[in-house]
Amino acid sequence: xxxxxxxxxxxxxxxxxxxxxxxxxxxxxxxxxxxxxxxxxxxxxxxxxxxxxxxxxxxxxxxxxxxxxxxxxxxxxxxxxxxxxxxxxxxxxxxxxxxxxxxxxxxxxxxxxxxxxxxxxxxxxxxxxxxxxxxxxxxxxxxxxxxxxxxxxxxxxxxxxxxxxxxxxxxxxxxxxxxxxxxxxxxxxxxxxxxxxxxxxxxxxxxxxxxxxxxxxxxxxxxxxxxxxxxxxxxxxxxxxxxxxxxxxxxxxxxxxxxxxxxxxxxxxxxxxxxxxxxxxxxxxxxxxxxxxxxxxxxxxxxxxxxxxxxxxxxxxxxxxxxxxxxxxxxx
Length: 332
Prior knowledge:
Elements: H1 2-24, H2 32-41, H3 46-74, H4 76-85, H5 92-103, H6 117-127, H7 132-156, H8 158-171, H9 173-200, H10 208-216, E1 222-225, H11 229-234, E2 241-242, H12 243-249, E3 267-270, H13 277-288, E4 294-296, H14 300-306, H15 322-325
Parallel strand pairs: 1-2, 1-3, 3-4
Pfam family, one: VTT_dom
Domain Rhodanese: 222-313
Organism: Diaphorobacter ruginosibacter
């Protein structure tokens, strides 16, 4: 274990740079503990602490700009890809869209403290057209807060961290094994949460071809869009209703959809997330409320667009329910 401590002392800045870069690119390799430990080891040298913060912030900014540019280039598709490699994919896009839609670039100030949020938020910033200068300003401040807090904690509790390192060093190979086991347990727990979530949301689904085929026959299931309202306004499946708007009309989001007889052709729920997780959650909620024949749309809006089907609402103003009301009542 002593060699590992020596390695951190000698190549700590390089290790921190790679660790932060890889984590911010989406890999489940926590960088915060490494920042704390490195901050503790460099605690007596203010100049090196400043260098440490600068290097870590630079690494985070590089990764975030990569996701920002990817969001600009590929739009919503890149959001789904990020969540597919995430160990916590359940509603990750939906939650990020909600926070970013409410707070805008300011949400980047705390993004790195929430696992998986930073990558999605950076890509979403590019997708929604946040100016690059604005993005870099808030993202840099957020990275400074995140890195600075870790380095500060490390330097503040440097003696405690050093004592812990001494214990691990005394344990030798057992110390390394202990760290490895802790990391494996962390990954296994995340994997189990992911697997359990996906299993709990298994249900019949409908493909975009099936939905388009029904529409071509004059059969129109009630379509529910569960994405953030700003995403809904930028483009949606024709005749889709916003779940967020419905949620504002009542304490129970499904109440405006009552009675069930209004939906003789069933209901289709869609999102833009991997495995239709957000859509399946809402579909399950509707089923518990007594609605039958509720199915998530496989692939969501991205699959609908990729198949070449019509998308409406791209030119609507982003003004809450006004965009919805301009196309008539929510419930037809």
